[in-house]
Design goal:
Helix 10 links the parallel strand 6 and strand 7. With 249 residues, this protein is of the alpha/beta class. The two termini are 21 Å apart. It contains 11 helices and 7 strands. Helix content is 39%, strand content 16%. The protein has a 7-stranded mixed β-sheet, with helices on both faces. The relative contact order is 0.19. The protein binds adenosine-5'-diphosphate and magnesium ion. Adenosine-5'-diphosphate (ADP) binds next to helix 3 and helix 11.
Amino acid sequence: MSTDKKKKNVKNYNSDMLVSSKTSFYIAEAYKTLRTNLMFAVAATEDAEFKNVFVLSSSLPGEGKSISSANLAIVLAQTGSKVLLVDADLRKPVQNKLFAASNVRGLSTVLVGETVLDVALKKEVRPNLDLLTSGKIPSNPSELLGSKAMRDLLGELSGLYDYVVVDTPPLNVVSDALTFATHTAGILLAVCPSICKHDNLKKSVESANLANVHILGAFLSNTTNQAIGLSYNKKYGKYGKYYYKKYGY
Ligand SMILES: Nc1ncnc2c1ncn2[C@@H]1O[C@H](COP(=O)(O)OP(=O)(O)O)[C@@H](O)[C@H]1O
Ligand SMILES: [Mg+2]
């Protein structure tokens, strides 16, 4: 592979991918619509142990979980609610890159008792938004995420914040998200139509049902306007095309 091709394949996560005052009206509006629908869905979840914690996932890699969870957390925080974004994709973390934050301490180091929560939290990465990056990549991510320590931590975070948004690995590749999502309001599924086919989505929904995990809903992400039949705002298409690359777990 030529050096140019290699460069193109490197995912260049940075803060330009996050909603800001420079973001096009249509993109910001799409996230706000998602926020409104999510708030209604969460409010209707009565029996969840941690009602204000929700998990963002998808069937496969590259569907837009990480970028969508970061942007959703930002627009949720814009309402004045105190929000925490947690990077629970311990194998392929990207929130530290999106927010240009250090990842020496984070979820993994808190879970093994190496760091206290208050030291690991990155405070006010945006107004009203704190960030818990993944921390160092551990040798046993599934065990850590399915542990009692994770459940206890979610309980603590649920009490500290109005909303907790958790970014996770894809459901059809590793079952990490399902091990703790059962205690939360549920899973919000990012669906990229060019990556996720009907069978893939069906498999995710079946796995969630088996694990007794509530599905809050699904939204289209990482897609072009042409793909979903819209004619306005070409920006999504350009953005996705430039950065898109599948990666393996
Ligand atoms: N909402 C979006 N609009 C445009 N492109 C997106 C969007 N979400 C994701 N992408 C593109 O898809 C790629 C994968 O997104 P990412 O959030 O890392 O997916 P995942 O976390 O599901 O693996 C990104 O590099 C970006 O180019
Ligand atoms: Mg991701």
